[in-house]
Amino acid sequence: PTHTILTIICTMAALKASRFLGLMLFASAQAIVIKNSPVERAHHLLSKMSLDDKIAMMHGTQGGYIGNTVANERLGIPPLNLNDGPQGFRTSDELAGTTTAFPCALAVASTWDLDAMQRYGAAMGAEFKGKGSNVQLGPGMCVARVPRCGRNFEYVSGEDPHLGYKLVRPLIEGIQSQGVIANAKHWINNNQEWDRFTVDESVDERTRFEMYYPPFEGAIEADVGSFMCSYNKINGYWSCENDRTLRKDLKETLGFKGWVMSDWGATHSTSLAQGLDQEMPDGDFMNSTLKEMVKNGTLEEKMVDESILRMLIPMFKLGVMDAHKHGEWDLKKINANVSTQAHVDLTRKLGAEGTILMKNEDSTLPIKKAAGRNGKTTIQLVGTACDSAPFLNGGGSGRVQADERNIKTPYTGVKSAAGESYDVMLIDTDNPVKAVAQLASEADYTIVCVGANSTEGSDRANLSLSHTQDALIEAVASKYEPNKDAKVIVAASIGGAILTPWASSVDAFLVNFYAGQEYGNAFADVVFGKVSPSGKLPLSFPNVENEVGFEPSQYPGIDQKNVYSERLLVGYRWYNFMGVTPAFPFGHGLGYAEMEYTNLTVSQEDRTVSFTITNTGSMSASEVAQVYLVFPQDAKEPPMQLKAFEKTDTLKPKASQQVSFSLSDRAFSVYSATAHKWGVKDGKFGVLVGSSSADIRLQSELVVTKEYAESRNKKDDDVAAFPDIFVLQKTGEQLKASLEL
User: Fold this and answer.
1) What is the DSSP letter of 421?
2) Cα–Cα distance measured from residue 151 to residue 104, given in angstroms and rounded to the nearest whole number
3) Using the 8-state DSSP alphabet, how is residue 621 labeled?
4) Residue of 84, 200, 263, 428 marked catalytic
5) Cα–Cα distance between 141 and 82 in angstroms, integer?
6) Tens digit of pLDDT for each residue in 480-508?
7) pTM reported for the whole predicted model
8) Closest by Cα among 249, 313, 259 to 286
9) Is 282 an active-site residue?
């Protein structure tokens, strides 16, 4: 009996030990799975997927978001809940106000501030996640080739590829820091809305790589999870089935490792071989047809596998897969109110920091207390854009609708900030005659609020302000012209460049590129001096319509074909090359304090550019310092190009800050269409440092030796020449005369 009892006890102990060991092994296995890399986890999951499982991920389906894929609960694969847009979560009208109406991308780009871009992205990403969306359909980053393009307000690049390259990286990092996959769009040459579904953009290789690819390269360097291909054709082939631009350029040359989805309805075939991975919003092509192609041998399943891995890896990397276990991607969350006071405060801050002070004659701004009528400073706000019809955002997929109760207009913002020392009045009409009739005979400050609509789906008819606003400004300015103490200020909320024929008639002029729901408070912060404006123009303002002289073949196109015959001469590059002075240049923006640039040093060894900025004014302020390079003439490049910029800290009066940039090989490189790669150019480069592209404060030179260039390039490839385009045919005055004729 004793032996039997001992045997039972030992057996039970062994079973317990075995069970404990099993649990330990199971826990260890679990730990190994969790510790495995996203690539390993993706391959492991792929090995368990049937062909039907794979194809289900390769097209959209009906659901509660703008785009949806089905979940695979058997394998633990969550749905992809894709939603607009590039400047916040776009809701239905019924849910307006449950997300924050942030400033548009162009408005935040006007800060030229990398930290601001990161904060902007993180706030948007948090709201997408709070709404149960794991893919934000943004940011947009196309270069503004066409001033009238209806979507310029959505794009972070303005008219410069390097500006976009730098700004898009922290923006994407901010979005994806919240466990939401960002989407770089629209690849590529989606530079107009006119005929966007059918237009064929004819663009040479060098122009694509130098002008239009760099912002997307920044997205790739930020490890963006997804791309969206556009509606248009490039050189005869639809963007979403363009073997050259999609498979070769994007995936092979630029090295993009995520997945490419189509714009909504932009799929024309089962284009896996050309580089498309996912059809949106449904499955007209990437459906059972794919299965049949695999079965009959016309499509290798390994191509399907590559597309699935391109989706799974960023889903694992950014935590989308693991968050599914905690119910993060539940459709019910779409009804949640995810706007927070912190995000509203950020919207206000970004709106103020992105405000561009275009003109400030005799230090009109900030508003100062003056002994007006009744011993108070009188402020009049004129125009429907001041209150009843403010311009807060653009239209289309980029529009985020705010709750009307949360909208701060210029009038409500100024009224709230003014206090008892000011008498604030509203004249709510755009009719010049009616407005002038209501103006006070004496006023210290008259603010005319204006704007222009911009939307996805159509380009602007022209660059003029909406309705009768030009006449309104002229009428108000004329009313107070004899009284030098009566200051007239124009506040423009717009989606891109505008014409400003009245600029010389007003005392001050401010621009916001759709600042969102806190526009009024942001505007008040600037005009009362709580914030010194430091925004800079991300695009040039022309003097006249079509100042760059686009032929119909260039825009809007002939027989639905556009030829980019201007090549690299986009925006300020064209103005500098042609010797034409724009109304307001790229990079322009004033502040409430003068900034002095001194002590420029340029290291020939490590190509470091350093200088000192000193606040010589009486108010604390920031400055955005800009570095441009002038290429050797035989490089056949535009006269000067932005290669570095930095926003300083807020400098107190008399305070200084040293600014330094280490310029990479790429800054001195030219793309060769012959060798199909970038190459460092040797020769003497001009180094220009300034406050804008037209306000150069310091100059120097830097020499890149032929030996160094050859060592970096490994072989001396010829640069593809541009015929005649860089031979100046007209002087600036001749060009102006021909435009006037």
Assistant:
1) T
2) 11
3) B
4) 263
5) 18
6) 987 778 999 999 999 999 999 999 999 99
7) 0.91
8) 259
9) no
